[in-house]
Amino acid sequence: MHKLATLALLLALPVAAQELATTVKATEVVPGIYMLEGADGFSSNMGLLVGDEHVLLIDDGMAPITASLIATIAELAGRPLDFVVNTHAHGDHVGSNATLAENGAIVFAHDNLRQAILDSVDQAGGPAGLPVVTFSDEVTFHVNGHPAIVMHLAAAHTDGDAAVVFPSQNVIDAGDLFFNALFPFIDLDSGGSVAGYKAGQQRLLDLANDQTRIIPGHGPLASKADLQAALDMLIDAEARVQKLVAAGMSQEQVLEANPLADYHEKWNWGFITTERMTSMLYRSLTDGQ
Fold first, then answer.
1. Which of 62, 165, 246, 282 shows its CA 20 to 30 Å from the CA of 149?
2. 16-69 per-position pLDDT tens digit
3. Which has the closest alpha carbon to 59: 68, 46, 50?
4. What pLDDT shows up at residue 223?
5. 57, HSE (Cβ side, Cα atoms, 13 Å)
6. CATH number of the domain that 178 lies in?
């Protein structure tokens, strides 16, 4: 049930003030790789690899964008979609799975992600949205003359996370291991952890250099410096809350102290507010996650 609650929370963002995206914006990252995003600025980012051999999509947004997503892929690729890689099971990343699968795409994901969708198939558009190929640690696609390495990042955003690395093109799709200039959502109820999230970000940083282009799960196209800033913020934010926990403060007292006030202007957003970020860190520190 916790995954249903997570999806409900995702959909409970302030959409009264903004409708969910129904159109898709494409940005060329390097030749042959695009970042796709819902035009409302909230919907998750997606990665698209196009070429003469195959077309590979990383994540596929919420159901309202499906028609626009298919049209955008057809325009950019000039051929049908072959593969979809899901980076985790949240509905804003798997919502078009079923339709894309019914149109012939093969969906790949981590073992735990398939199980999460089995628990709530509606978030992926129904049973057809289940991944049909899963992996436990890593799988490599060899398409269009370039490897695409899909790697599991354990107990990070969820328990079924993956990032996709294009080493020869110096591009990384981080999924929700990276919210660029936004407080991250670490889903403690779906196997995520602050420790795993920090370790996952560090692993991606170790694979990057100053020229690496990084597609975040949310937020604008990014650099290694942007990812480093996100990790630095998380480390410092956790330390600030830890200091108050060590002093014996309750969650209410920590929230009243507002230890993340310095980060509010830049990092606060509609889903993970400063208060929610503080509460998540408090829970992580006191529950041992």
1. 62
2. 334 566 889 999 999 999 999 987 655 799 999 999 999 999 999 998 899 999
3. 46
4. 98
5. 33
6. 3.60.15.10
